[in-house]
TrEMBL record:
It catalyses: [protein-PII]-uridylyl-L-tyrosine + H2O = [protein-PII]-L-tyrosine + UMP + H(+); [protein-PII]-L-tyrosine + UTP = [protein-PII]-uridylyl-L-tyrosine + diphosphate. It comes from Viridibacterium curvum. This is Bifunctional uridylyltransferase/uridylyl-removing enzyme. Residues 1-325 are annotated as: Uridylyltransferase. GO terms for molecular function: nucleotidyltransferase activity. Has four distinct domains: an N-terminal nucleotidyltransferase (NT) domain responsible for UTase activity, a central HD domain that encodes UR activity, and two C-terminal ACT domains that seem to have a role in glutamine sensing.
Amino acid sequence: MGTPLLPDRALLETLRVVLQTAATCLQEDYEQDPNPTRLLQSRARIVDFVLSDLWQMCGLPAELTLVAVGGYGRRELYPYSDVDILVLLPTDEVEDDVRQRIEGYIGCLWDLGLDIGHSVRSVDECMRESALDVTVQTNLIESRRLTGSLPLYREFLRRLFVEFNPESFFHAKSAEQEQRYNRFNQTPYALEPNCKESPGGLRDLQVIIWLTLSAGLGTRWSDLARHGLITRDEARELRTCERFMQHVRIRLHYIARRREDRLIFDVQETLAKAFSLEATKAKRASEVMMQRYYRVAKKITQLNGLLLQNIAQRYAPPALSNVRAVDEDFQICGELLDIVDDDVFERHPGAMLKAYLHMQQQSGVKGMSARTLRGLWRGRKLINAAFRRDPENRSTFLAIFQQTRGQTHELRRMNQYETLGSYLPAFGRIVGQMQHDLFHVYTVDQHILQVLRNVRRFALEEHGHEYPLMTRLMAEFERPWVLYIAALFHDIAKGRGGDHSTLGMSDARRFGRDHGMLKEDVDLIVWLVEQHLAMSQVAQKQDLTDPDVIRQFAARAGTERRLTALYLLTHADIRGTSPKVWNGWKGKLLEDLFMASRQLLRGDTPQLALGLDERREQIRERLRFYGLMPDVENDLWSDLDTVYFLRHDIEEVAWHTRMLYHRPHGDEPIVKARPSPVEKGLQIMVYTRDQKDLFMRLCAYFARLGYTILDAKIHTTTKGYALDSFVVMDPGQETDYRDVIGLIEHDLTERLRSEARIDAPTSGRVSRQIKHFPITPAVTLQPDERGQHFILSIVAADRPGLLYSVARTLAEHGVEVHTAKIITLGERAEDTFLVSSRNLDNSGKTVQLEAALLERLRV
């Protein structure tokens, strides 16, 4: 075994000086004539030279290849960026001498002061890793040979693109972008955004290039215009946005003297000076800088959305037969809302608001077509005073808040395309406005939309496990949409000078009067805007054990409806400031204040904190009716948490209790079935010590019987028992369910007792309707507010065994199901699962799970 040839220290020091001198010259040249492309490419060329020379000096074998990958591979090397390289091997087996030479070479690169990201793989290993990890695949498609074996590199490229699937790559990168957006709370408007990774940052532009490169559509913005994906004006806008973001990142690196991609408060003023921006009478220089940044980020997210949509249609163009009319201005094209012609909004400006309303009302629509979005952006200037006075437009705008779904998505879209700020000029004034305090991490407009999202979540059952009391209160609240409007106006007057709560009252009152709202609702909204800070201030700063404090606060609220509304808004407001601001202590203080004040307003009637007192009493009455002695339910109920009682109706809890009260902690599985009291079908309860992959095995069992699962409620007691409920139905409608109850109870009990394997069912047939009108499957996976669980939502064509396919995929990826809500709308399944797994903290694993689910869901 030979000793690796390594350059002496003097030579390494010379190369180090060369790199440092070149870096200084590049910075001086950039300061005199800021040209980001020249800087990035020049640094890449200098590093190319050093890496290639050092490769020869270290005596690396001729059959190896040195490859630049990632950003370095596309010749974009920022001042302090890491240098990603791949050492390509001819075989998986590496001799010790060669491995030592490679290690020595990498060590020399670190000695030069380069931040090296390296991998050492054979072509076969590259292909295997590429198939498993879309990030690796992305790095490889941007590869560039630096030195070494050209035949080996050509073989690598041949294998890479032979095994490459552009459509799968598109879906994986789209899912990866969605996960990245989730990490940044779906907004580019954080007060300290990341110019590389945040929505609207450089990564959004790179995603476009990766996808167009993989689809053979070019790598320049002009190429995209030539292929009809964007207009020439949009191509110029993209280049302008890209140059701005490149300047931002370059200057951040120079200011921090290290790799820094966050526009943290510490550098914003310096960054503004680097861009020659000055303060105005109303704004600091840093605020001027950040508003420019937000405008560019908004434009990037708009164009990113347009391009992803246009690329998607290349893979799955909508069939002419799959177009249906909505009204005279709109049609559904595939799964997108489309305007019937390009000048719809010029002819009927009010149709802009109706576009958002249609998105809420039309089931199965996943987005707006590119020309609809372009039309909304161009048409925003048509929203003037006459538009705002039009009674039909006012009615449409109010209707957007009153729908059963889609408020969060559509109001965000309205803000993205400036419809919201154009219709409500008061809102337009706070778009991109920063908040310099210790807890808000979003601009004012984004904070408002976060608060509105939080209030909306209280009304959604799938989030009931996060805040069960809020969900219960919201369900009982008359006209809950009033709270969405209160959320929209609560901070709308920030930045005007004076008390924004008082100033916002006038805006809210005018809005309510102009839109013909009930006086009691207008009064409530105005009061909430005025008092939206009061509850948190009392809860956190005053003594809640002092009866006078509670009495004064209850008197301020006056009615239980006002108190409940303020509690819901306050809870949502605090959570909407920053993911780090909310904690259990604040929640407990607010809850204590709410409960004490509510007791006082109810005349001191004792109530349990979560409003379950009457509910439990009703269940106990039902148990007495069935002849059970008082208190026999206590042992079982002590193992069941609040979420269980909220998710199961009174009759269901009574049935479970009757079946289980006398053996809550036994070792034997208990399976009970009965005809469903709600609809035709069979209701089945399973109670057993929790077992590995239990949910998947139960789904497999019902699928083998040929049953469709209409509803599933998965619950685990505090003592580690699974208490699962299913409603199943024979899709052929041929079963007399009473005849199979005994068989199912005996057979399933035996299988659970022995933990015997339940064979996978055969794939079920899809209906003819699905074959002719396919439903594109969709998978979304988002963390809940607590960060302990994830909410998995799927949309797919319904078929026998569908739930088993989902359960099996989750089990294969080590994901545990806690609850499941199954909804079947005709041929369309919309299922929601509360899941957890350590793997879900890894974005690569999450993307793999989503890809696997999509593959299983495709018909």
